[in-house]
Amino acid sequence: MLKNLDPGIFVADHDFSLMGLNIGTRTTVIQLSGGGLWVHSPGPMTGGWADAVDALGEVRFLVA
What we know:
Blueprint: E1 3-6, E2 9-14, E3 17-18, E4 21-22, E5 25-31, E6 37-40, H1 47-56, E7 59-63
Parallel strand pairs: 6-7
Antiparallel strand pairs: 1-2, 2-5, 3-4, 5-6
């Protein structure tokens, strides 16, 4: 689920395994002044995580 780090800055941690080792990943979501979102390192958009991002606004920039 999204965690609020600061006004307009959110992160979500995701499980990710590589060669049997869980190293995890982190997605960062930043609300832009125009109301859109900048998303860095998107994780799996499933369940409540996708709903939480949708509730923040429209994704305008996606950086992988």
